[in-house]
Amino acid sequence: MLQDVDTALSVAFVVKLDDQSLGAFTSCEGLGCEVVLESREEGGNNGFVWQLPTKLKYPNIKLSRPLGRETETIAKWFASMATGYTRGATGTIEAMTAGGRVIATWGLIDVVPVRWTGPSMSADSPKVLTETVEIAHHGFLVAAPAAGPRPGTN
């Protein structure tokens, strides 16, 4: 039935880092993965080039939201980088409906803050002040299989 389909029309992206909430964001760009290919020409076969997968590449993720109290959490996270980076921080991004129901979750490995951009302010053009956080990661967490019997077994 069409009414059973739940699309995320009005979405908030809740971000957590090692179970510490960084708050909700209204925009999320860059979730993705790319397979890097290496071209190899086969000797004696001039009409064909092999495309071999070599590695996965993950773009940086940009998260934006209106400026608020949660900005302090982001500032503390970036300030902690001055004392040294500890590899291994895991993160999650949850896409949620306006009602708070989770639509999708992405787990991220080795999250590193890259850039924070604060609001542009001008008395000539009043508008909502926004901030943008850019993070890098080194792959997606693979969810553990659910416990219980496998389909087709009793």
TrEMBL record:
One of its GO terms (molecular function) is structural molecule activity. It holds the Pfam family Phage_T4_gp19. It comes from the Bacteria. Signal peptide: none annotated. InterPro entries: CHP02241, Phage_T4_Gp19. This is Phage tail protein. It comes from Knoellia aerolata DSM 18566.
